[in-house]
Design goal:
The protein is of the alpha+beta class. The chain folds into three domains: 215 residues, Up-down Bundle (Multidrug efflux transporter AcrB transmembrane fold), CATH 1.20.1640.10; 76 residues, Alpha-Beta Plaits (2-Layer Sandwich), CATH 3.30.70; 129 residues, Gyrase A, domain 2. The protein has 14 helices and 19 strands. A six-stranded mixed sheet has the order 11-10-16-15-9-12. Strands 7-8-2-18 form a four-stranded antiparallel sheet. A hairpin with a 4-residue loop joins strand 10 and strand 11. Helix 4 crosses helix 6, helix 6 packs across helix 10 and helix 12 runs antiparallel to helix 13. It is elongated, with a radius of gyration of 34 Å. The two termini are 24 Å apart.
Length: 532
């Protein structure tokens, strides 16, 4: 009797906990005083149910390789100067090849030693001598090219995931597709164009010095000295209250990039009441920024984001503390989005949207209705069959089935899982499997009753002998569901989630819940006959 009491308490406690976790999903809004007592997680609807956005992005990984080659050109120039090896020019050619012009041939051996020591990713392709100069063509090793491409795609995937997490989309589906593509599904997104803008922005932040010796006339005519480029610049005109765009000449060398950023927050400029983005650097970035500002006092330092200059303030003194800011004519939403992409990091290569589809909520409602109807019709059919075939025992199995569905939904809510159409199919399958265990138990009880045993003895023997068979059947299916969840993606995973939770709930309701009901009727109510 004590065992029955504790089992009944266990079943009641599980049912109450299930209802507790379902409250946020079943209630559209709780009073503020009550909401703090209930969990925040609820059942999320997938893209196929609530609508949203479907994107296929292509990572232009070759651009990352070209960018690496460009950085190597600058590093090679600096190293040649430090090693006092004279050169006429070092430039990138043919996508990611590097051409080095040396005076004569005497320094070629020194260049080879330098490459072996500091630039192992570059290999000597060929050397040509014309007159008193020699031209050496270096190329990135194929293994290095493949590695850069792979890292670019992996980093792009992680960066996009970080941006979407900060954007506030619940249960997004982000995964690689093919060699250089990324699939992104955003359920319930309200502003698709803003999402695309945040996801696809390269967000390459650079700090460059303004070429002070270049006149506006030279900038307009394009007559620029070596190592200087013209950039577009956005600035805020306080008199008109508008953003104006102009051109500015900057030194091509990048002194610092946004890779050192640890935080980016939106602040309000008290003078103009306009938002700006405040940056914080890690210790290494703080030291680098301090050295840059110390070495260039009274010069203008341009802040360049994706090739656009947003501000170019004069460095009045050495700036320590690892802080900087990006000012401009931002709306609050633009400033927030900029802060998101800077916190998440720059994309290692440009991302192109190959396919963009928006799933409307009407399609989602239709899917929910049809899925619900399929599950409802299947459930009703199972309930009627169990009552007709097993009579009163069928009613007990149906009560356990209702609790089973309640536990599945509570499990989805507790884990904050996403319910998709395949997930609804998993629930429909679980409804059928839920009574399968009861069928095994009931058939065993029928056999024991035919042998002349009392209802109590038949129930005990039926449960004892059928339990191992039920465990074997459900555990093997559970292993398959876990494998599907581990290695599957998208719809397959949604199906595996509901199937896994359903199997665990099925074991609990079939072996424990129905047994508690039978024991209560036979022991407490002293039922002498069993309708089965």
């Amino acid at each position: 009797m004590k065992s029955l009491k504790w089992r009944a308490i266990l079943v009641s406690a599980v049912a109450l906990v299930a209802l507790f976790y379902l409250v946020p999903s079943l209630s559209s809004g709780l009073p503020s005083g009550m909401s703090k007592f209930f969990p925040n997680k609820k059942i999320n609807l997938g893209l196929d149910l609530q609508g949203g956005m479907h994107l296929i992005l292509e990572v232009q990984a070759d651009k990352a390789v070209e960018g690496t080659a460009e950085r190597m050109v600058e590093d090679l120039k600096e190293t040649l100067r430090q090693e006092r090896i004279p050169f006429s020019s070092v430039k990138k050619v043919n996508f990611w090849d590097v051409q080095v012009q040396l005076p004569g041939t005497s320094k070629q051996e020194e260049l080879k030693k330098l490459l072996d020591k500091d630039f192992s990713s570059l290999e000597w392709h060929r050397a040509e001598t014309t007159g008193e100069s020699s031209s050496i063509l270096l190329t990135l090793r194929n293994s290095e090219v493949q590695n850069i491409r792979k890292l670019a795609i992996d980093q792009a995937l992680e960066t996009i995931r970080n941006r979407i997490d900060q954007f506030g989309v619940s249960e997004p589906d982000i995964r690689p597709e093919g060699d250089d593509r990324i699939l992104v599904q955003l359920p319930g997104i309200k502003d698709p164009q803003r999402a695309v803008s945040v996801i696809g922005k390269t967000a390459l932040l650079e700090f460059k010095l303004v070429a002070e010796d270049v006149t506006p006339e030279q900038t307009k005519e394009g007559k620029l000295p070596a190592g200087v480029k013209v950039f577009s610049m956005k600035s805020f005109d306080a008199n008109t209250g508008r953003t104006v765009e102009s051109e500015i000449a900057l030194k091509d060398r990048t002194l610092m990039t946004g890779e050192y950023i640890t935080n980016a927050q939106v602040r309000i400029d008290p003078q103009y009441n306009t938002p700006y983005v405040a940056l914080e650097f890690n210790p290494q970035g703080a030291r680098l920024f301090e050295r840059i500002t110390e070495a260039n006092v009274k010069q203008r330092l341009a802040i360049v984001l994706d090739g656009m200059v947003y501000s170019a303030p004069v460095i009045q003194e050495k700036i320590s503390g690892g802080r900087a800011s990006i000012t401009g004519s931002f709306s609050m939403e633009e400033a927030r989005d900029l802060a998101i992409v800077l916190r998440a990091g720059a994309l290692p290569a440009p991302v192109v949207v190959l396919e963009e589809r928006t799933v409307g909520p009407s399609l989602g409602q239709d899917s929910i209705r049809k899925g619900f109807m399929a599950s409802l019709i299947g459930g009703i059919a199972v309930v009627i069959f169990m009552i007709i075939y097993y009579r009163f025992a069928g009613v007990i199995a149906d009560a356990a089935l209702v609790l089973n569905i309640l536990l599945i939904m509570a499990g989805l809510a507790a884990f904050g899982a996403t319910l998709t159409l395949p997930g609804i199919a998993g629930i429909a399958l679980t409804i059928g499997m839920a009574v399968d265990a009861n069928v095994l138990i009931y058939e065993r009880i029928r056999e024991e009753l035919r042998l002349g045993k009392t209802p109590r003895a038949a129930v005990e023997t039926g449960y004892d002998r059928a339990t191992l068979t039920i465990l074997d059947a459900n555990v093997t299916t559970l292993i398959a569901a876990i494998v599907l969840f581990q290695f599957g993606t998208g719809p397959v995973r949604g199906f595996a989630v509901t199937l896994t939770i359903g199997l665990i709930a099925n074991l609990f309701t079939a072996i424990i819940v129905t047994r508690v009901i039978f024991d209560y009727l036979l022991l407490q109510r002293r039922m002498r006959t069993l309708s089965i």
